[in-house]
Fold:
Amino acid sequence: MKESVKGTGFTHFDGKGNAVMVDVSAKEVTVRQATARGRIRMKREVLEAVRRGQMKKGDVLGVARIAGIMGVKRTAELIPLCHSLPVEKCQVDFEIREDEDCIDAVCTVGTCARTGVEMEALTGVTAALLTIYDMCKAMDRSMEITDIRLMEKSGGASGLFIREEEKG
Structure:
């Protein structure tokens, strides 16, 4: 049963203003999926080294993919009131955008649960991008992580969400 601070609609607080994990026990288990996207901008020579697999620390995108998956699986440990969910699908992909000197990361997470996996997808993208930064920082400390956002989510009572830029 959802409890919230009277009249506020905030469900992460009880009637006394104490932080609580939202009670989802009465919600229906449904198939849920979420996709998030983010970007890291870098110097062209760094992007080329990543693309060619010539970074001293190794396969940047391979390691970042694993980091993204690990981030998804540990989301509930990082976000204080986030539910621990069974992750049944996780895919992390990268798009090298040479025209903009950046790499886009995309993370899609799926589960059958009582609450959604938006936070897991966002955490996966963030962990992947931070790993790229870590593995490339010796060549470019001015890299910039930007545009982390939910692109799409499905399942649950609120149904389908597709970011406007993706409809089309």
Observations:
- The helical segments are 44-52, 60-73, 75-78, 118-136.
- The chain has four helices and five strands.
- Residues 48 and 54 are 8 Å apart (CA to CA).
- The chain has a mean pLDDT of 92.
